[in-house]
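Researcher: Please translate sequence to structure tokens.
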Amino acid sequence: MAYGAQPAGTTPFFVVTHSSPNDIRLERELGLRFTCVNGLTATVDQACTAATDGHDVIMGGGDVIGQAVEKGLVDELHLHLAPDPARRRDSALSVRYPPALPST
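Model: Translation complete:
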């Protein structure tokens, strides 16, 4: 979802999780479709299969995005950074030895 009045994309949404919730508020209140999948690679595979235009979007915190980069699942990267003084972490991403991303 977007930080604002409009969604960041259209349904369906695929969620990386180790345990699926019993209730998803945005499904119930807005009728959006969510599929909860265990594991990042499996989630991205299902999202790519469902994408009608061949593109999918991975949204998440630094850990999820860092894993996607390390696994080679990212073709293009847009970072939206906001300070979070409560976290006390120096790095936005915890990527060790990130692969080179193709420049466009």
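Researcher: Any highlights?
Model: Strands lie at 13-16, 34-37.
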